[in-house]
Amino acid sequence: MQLQNCSVGTGDTVIADAIAFAKSICPTCASRVHGGGFAGTILNVVPKQHVANFVENMANRYGKDNVFVLNVRTVGATVL
């Protein structure tokens, strides 16, 4: 909510709107801008019990090919 450089002055609020939508689905999730450039993405950390609903809602709005579920490894890369 405090990041103010999500657009280049063109009135483009796509990233800010995506974060607001994510927070409306899951108020307890953590959302942030990840990447940038021409498209940028948002990264959301969602409690396990909310993942299915979150993914369904995001996929309905942004397309199933644009929503990815990632998992955090239980061991560090040096163990792999």
The class by helix and strand makeup works out as: alpha+beta
Measured as a percent range, the helix fraction is 25-40%
Strand percent estimate: 5-15%
Adjacency order of strands in the biggest sheet: 1-2
The value of Rg in angstroms is: 14 Å
How many β-strands, per DSSP? 2
Secondary-structure element pattern, one letter each: HEEH
What about the largest sheet?
A: 2 strands, antiparallel
Low-confidence stretches: none
The end-to-end distance, rounded to whole angstroms, is 37 Å
Number of helices: 2
Mean of all residue-level pLDDT scores: 83
**So what's the overall shape?**
globular
Give a nutshell description of this structure.
Helix content is 30%, strand content 12%. It is of the alpha+beta class.
Annotation keywords:
single chain, 80 residues, alpha+beta, two-stranded antiparallel sheet, 2 strands, 30% helix, globular
Overall description:
This protein has a two-stranded antiparallel ribbon with strand order 1-2. The chain has 2 helices and 2 strands, in the order αββα. It has a domain at 14-65. By secondary structure, it is α+β, with helices and mostly antiparallel strands. The model has no long low-confidence stretch (mean pLDDT 83). Helices cover 30% and strands 12% of the residues.
SSE topology:
Layout: H1 14-25, E1 30-34, E2 41-45, H2 51-62
Antiparallel strand pairs: 1-2
